[in-house]
Amino acid sequence: xxxxxxxVPIVLAPLAGGPTTPQLAAAVSNAxxxxxxxxxxxxxxxxxxxxxxxxxxxSAPIGVNVFVPGGPAxxxxxxxxxxxxxxxxxxxxxxxxxARFDDDDWAAKLALLTAEPTAVTSxxxxxxxxxxxxxxxxxxxEVWVTxxxxxEAALAAAAGADALVVQGSEAGGHRGSFTDDPDDDAAGGFxxxxxxxxxxxxxxxxxxxxxxxxxxxxxAAVLAAGAAAAQxxxxxxxxxxxxxxxxxxxxxxAGTPTxxxxxxxxxxxxxxxxQFIADHSHHAPAAYPEVHYLTSPVRAxxxxxxxxxxxxxxxxxxHELSRELPAADLVAALMSDARxxxxxxASRYPGSEx
Length: 354
Description:
Elements: H1 2-5, E1 10-12, H2 22-30, E2 35-38, H3 44-57, E3 62-67, H4 75-92, H5 106-115, E4 120-124, H6 130-139, E5 142-147, H7 150-158, E6 163-167, E7 173-174, H8 192-200, E8 207-210, H9 216-224, E9 229-232, H10 246-253, E10 258-261, E11 269-272, H11 275-280, H12 290-305, H13 327-348
Parallel strand pairs: 1-9, 2-3, 3-4, 4-5, 5-6, 6-8, 8-9
Antiparallel strand pairs: 7-11, 10-11
């Protein structure tokens, strides 16, 4: 297992949409963790180029994360939402994008990752068919699946996953859930510590803990709770190697609370609260990726003009604890703090002396 070979139990979250770069992934791997590239929103050719760039920067293992495609949304619901946000586009001086469904170049990406495997291929938004899992494993790559409930964990284990990325509701960006059902929203999702305990109770697969982890102390906590490693995303957004926009860097450093919303992409995601979230979360449909394409020009205009109120500022609940450090320095600082936290806990409760 790759997790057994890591010098430090830190995994870079994929951070699709720009923040994760070959430089950031390589820097985390070179520092002893596992860097990840996000395949989401890229063509297979674009992904192949980024993999080549990352491999030129590190001889250490890297991973690639792939979105599992869903199905088309109701055209009527998307049209109604387009009408509701038309004024936002007009005010931004742009036209709404063309709402469309696609599978994010699914087959071509699988073909690429089977022909030219990386150390790990992880999946978000669902669990691939067992035949896909087996093909990737036969090519020499481990398969990890992101899960947000014990039921999803059971399905991923049955499909043959090598490890599970256990994502708590504290996590920034899109929920990795297999389905995006508004009827489930009232439950609020599982917090990371609860989910870790429940999933550990039903499987011995290695677990990678994700969601709201920004400090060494939090890394120590999930390791103590049974995780083999911690996956951090928001914590790396302010690193110089990250492709994070200046607008998001500024927002992440501040203490504005986060909220769950479908307003920007049609899929539930956690971002820093702004006016667009406040105005449109209540009527945004479950319609991914149609809404993603619909709002894309508005979000791009917001980034260009420096208007944070119309941009998806994805971030976890502890975003203000992020640090502006080179990725290698951040990994080292986090691990130093994690070791200190584990040692302090052990010294306070030395079971052998009871």
